[in-house]
């Protein structure tokens, strides 16, 4: 590049980008132009993403998940009008996650948006959401409660695609032989969560 | 995300287009209009689309700001002297003296970091014309400034 090209390409100095960005998002939110917002939340296991639609928490991503993929998928499956911005429901979710990880919360009370799941998968997740703190169930049991005894493999797949982990406690579902089973966030995290809840 | 991917460049370009004082408002109008239209558009380049909206918003802003339009009703003397006064680099005074299409093409190419194809899309001209306008604009600038 020649000197003139360099000079032309040097970003012109204006207001700080953070401020411009913040003002824009505040206006977009107040005009109802943002469908999904998210924040990144620091936990003992790493960074999680907490995303909310206007209806409620629509996606929680565990530290082991690829943040870029999670956001791309939200843009594709929920709405491209997506931005990093706080919302009341996200603030509440973050507070409750902190309390949960600190061992001080047994039950989440949050508005949830279930739109990323449906049909049998949703039934499986709803049954999973009903498993109390510190209690576990097997994939087969959950399949049965969701109306399809014997569909433990399908139940496992529903849980592997849980859009709302922790809040919908798929970590409380284990293999029927007592082995811990897979977890989207890794078996280490699953084990740690069960320990936190006094199970192992 | 589109905002973080294209926003900083778009905002910087608007600073050279309408000046640091008005860039924030025009940027916000641009992005809100883009968000509102998001579902109904299919564009090959999101970036080119955003810059074309921004340019239209900049023109609207100039129409509002300029009380006395030129005889043809066209406002073709951006950035205004008061804008270039506020920009650090005097190179923008020279850009200001370029013919309209060259000025827009050069600023989109360098300050906006658009490809020739994106410039063509944003300006509604052919890619060859975009390339030519950038080239001629740069050549004129070199002649004026004396760059090796």
The CATH topology of the largest domain in chain A comes to Double Stranded RNA Binding Domain
Question: How many DSSP E strands of chain B?
Answer: 0
Per CATH, the architecture of chain B is: Up-down Bundle
The structural class of chain A is alpha/beta
Rg on CA atoms of chain B, Å: 15 Å
CATH names the topology of chain B as Butyryl-CoA Dehydrogenase, subunit A, domain 3
Distance between the termini of chain B: 39 Å
How far is it from the N-terminal to the C-terminal residue of chain A, by CA? 62 Å
User: What is the count of DSSP helices of chain A, taking H or I runs of 4+ residues?
Assistant: 8
Radius of gyration of chain A: 20 Å
Total number of domains of chain A: 2
Structure overview:
The complex is a heterodimer of chains A (200) and B (148). Chain A is 42% helix and 14% strand. Chain A is α/β, with parallel strands linked by helices and 200 residues long. In chain A, the strands form two sheets. A four-stranded mixed beta sheet of chain A has the order 3-2-1-4, with helices on both faces. Chain A has a two-stranded parallel sheet with strand order 5-6. In chain A, strand 2 and strand 3 form a beta hairpin. In chain A, helix 5 packs across helix 7 (152-160) and helix 6 (139-145) crosses helix 7 (152-160). With 148 residues, chain B is mainly alpha-helical. Chain B has one domain (2-145): Up-down Bundle (Butyryl-CoA Dehydrogenase, subunit A, domain 3), CATH 1.20.140.160. In chain B, helix 2 packs across helix 3 (46-65). Chain B is globular, with a radius of gyration of 15 Å. In chain B, 44% of the residues are buried. Chain A binds chain B through residues 2-5, 7-15, 17, 20-21, 23-25, 27-28, 31, 33-34, 71, 75, 80-84, and chain B through 1-4, 7-9, 11-16, 20, 23-24, 27-28, 31-32, 35-36, 38, 87-89, 91-92, 95, 106-107, 109-111, 113, 138, 141-142, 145, 147-148.
